[in-house]
Amino acid sequence: MVKTNKFAYEEIESYIKEHAVLKIREAPEYDAWILTGKIKFPLLITKIECTNSALLDLLNINPHQCQSEHYHYFFEFYAGCSYTREELKPFAEHEVIKSLITAICKTVERGYIKESYSEEEDGIDGTITYYVKWPIKLIWHETATSYVLPKTMKNK
Predict the structure, then answer these.
(1) Per the confidence metrics, is the pTM higher than 0.85?
(2) CA–CA separation, 76 vs 53, rounded Å?
(3) Is 99 in contact with 37 (CB distance < 8 Å)?
(4) 1 domain-assigned
(5) In this predicted model, what pLDDT tens digit does every residue of 17-42 receive, in sequence order?
(6) Residue 26, domain extent
(7) Conformation bin of residue 126: beta by default, left when phi > 0, alpha when psi is -120 to 50
(8) Fewest beta carbons less than 10 Å away: which of 37, 43, 64, 72?
(9) pLDDT beneath 50, residues of the chain
(10) pLDDT at residue 145, rounded to an integer
(11) How many CA atoms lie within 13 A of 133 on its CB side?
(12) Is the distance from CB of 129 to CB of 49 less than 8 angstroms?
């Protein structure tokens, strides 16, 4: 069993199987189907850095709140796989779920998520870096972007 810092691989896999959105589309030019998966996964934010202070206006997070509370944000992760025969669909689903798990685990191992903005596309230049860890607990809310758990003193 693969053990992550906080959750077992099986817990993350179960969470993703329950909450991921899988979509199939035909790709006739390749005589195949493409299966894509998307999941909103909560990660604990420990710190936020912006290269341009104007980017703070884009955040629905108070960067200073991260120090005083357990601030979680639902980051979106994507994966895809193509298959050529209908009987391969279960294998494609397995690969998409495995890829989503890998993307989440690698993000937490790396310790940050970086969003880049450009003047041409977004009207503002700069990057936002979210420093992340495993969430305190795995929760789900279809439309949520964030949730806050107050930090508590530990007796032990």
Answers:
(1) no
(2) 24
(3) yes
(4) no
(5) 999 999 999 999 989 999 999 999 98
(6) 9-150
(7) left
(8) 64
(9) 1-4, 150-156
(10) 55
(11) 11
(12) yes
Which tokens in the block code for residue 70?
């357990």
User: What would the 3-class secondary structure string for the chain be?
Assistant: CCECCCCEHHHHHHHHHHHCEEEEEEEHHHCEEEEEEEEEEEEEEEEEEECCHHHHHHCCCCCCHHHHEEEEEEEEEEEEEEECCHHHHHHHHHHHHHHHHHHHHHHHHHCEEEEEECHHHHCCCEEEEEEEECCCCCCCCCCCCEEEEECCCCCC
CB contact at 8 A, 1 and 10: yes
Tally of domains in the chain: 1
pLDDT of the residue at 146: 52
In a domain, 3, yes or no: no
Residue 50 lies in a domain: yes
- Which DSSP helix (H) or strand (E) runs through 17? helix 9-19
Note whether 144 and 74 are within 8 A (CB): yes
